[in-house]
What we know:
- This protein is of the alpha+beta class.
- The chain has a single domain, classed as Alpha-Beta Barrel (Multidrug-efflux Transporter 1 Regulator Bmrr, Chain A), CATH 3.20.80.
- Helices cover 21% and strands 36% of the residues.
- It has helices at 34-49, 71-76, 121-133, and strands at 4-8, 11-20, 56-57, 62-67, 79-87, 98-102, 105-113, 141-146, 160-167.
- Strands 1, 2, 3, 4, 5, 6, 7, 8 and 9 form a 9-stranded antiparallel sheet that branches.
- It is globular.
Amino acid sequence: MEPKVVEKGQIILVGFSFYGDPFAESGGWTEENEVGRLWRRFLAYWAENQGRVKHLRGGDLAYEVHIGGYEETGSMGHYEVFVGMEVAELEDVPVQLLVKVLPPTRYAVFTLRGEQIASDWPRMIYDEWLPGSGNESAHDYLIELYDQRFKGLENLTESELDVYVPVW
């Protein structure tokens, strides 16, 4: 798994968030875990209200951001998962939506295909690739970027997904 490296400016996202153990109810890649429920809740809101969000950027791009660095991340497996869409600027953001502003940074971009999506790719990236890459982790988050190449959990073999890992 060899990434391409890209520079990205600030990314402004609007969406929904979850904090805790996303796999407490149901493990693995399933719509029944907390991340799957978060997506369902966000997509239902988005279907009804996307016209209320101004300055939408990227059209069909959807973001899933995994944020660590909390005291409970290492000891209890609790972290924040944010799902949402990118906007060019903030204006009249509906009160139901949260905002995340990701800093300008350099990213190692991994493209996962088919069954790789459901594999233990975080271990491969952080335990295998990163130590030997000459890079260091720049921020305690990663981005899963979903576009038209992702065909859904029921069609993983036909899907692709990009993972952005901030690096120095």
